[in-house]
Design goal:
The protein has two domains: 87 residues, Arc Repressor Mutant, subunit A; 138 residues, Up-down Bundle (Four Helix Bundle (Hemerythrin (Met), subunit A)), CATH 1.20.120.530. The chain has twelve helices and two strands, in the order H-H-H-H-E-E-H-H-H-H-H-H-H-H. By secondary structure, it is mainly α.
Amino acid sequence: MTEAIFYDLKQLTGLAPSLSAQVARAIGTRVVTAKLHPGDLIEDEATLAKRYQVSRSVIRDAVKTLVGKGLLEVRRGIGTRVRPRANWGLLDDDVLAWQQSAPADSTQLNQLMEVRHIVEPKAARWAAERGSDESHLAIVSALERMEAEKGAVEDFVFADATFHRAILRATDNDFLVALEGVIFSALLSSIRLTNDDPRKNERSLPVHREVYEAIAARDGDNAERLMSYLLGDTSLRLNGMLKPV
């Protein structure tokens, strides 16, 4: 579910993916979900072509895509290997989306939450201080959708992510907006654990509304403080549900 939501949020859906993109996704997902490990050789072109029922040229294009994302490397005379995680394009939209298929990983989730703690409180402040009235309307629209969808899981998740995206976009900072994929990945990964029961959705709604009200009042100090509190509550719930790896 969350991989599809990620692509919807990034507005990357609509066109049918090419065969090479489909194969790249299949192989890439095997890498990021640790079915293939760093240093492993993947199958040769002929074997992959047979496995995925495509031509060898499609396999070559898929491998080129994954090389570009830092997941694979091709060594002449040796084959194609999985690269160490440190070489992956971790901010790449596809890599972030494919990781939604992986089991919850406490280290990765904590790292993603650290990024949220660094970025989102300041984003809330700047949304309050310099966001346009129109951008504030986008925030409250997402909030109202959250309130309307509190009895659902998938629709609530989408609305929640849209709320945080609207705050990033209200900062009018293109570099912050470019980080929205990281925010989505962290949010969707954490929601898989903390909001699996629709009855839990209501718990966070009052603080979300307080964040919005501070932004609408152009109270940067309070907006930053409340967003920090909201993220802190999420981190506490995650820490209570995850065991260190």
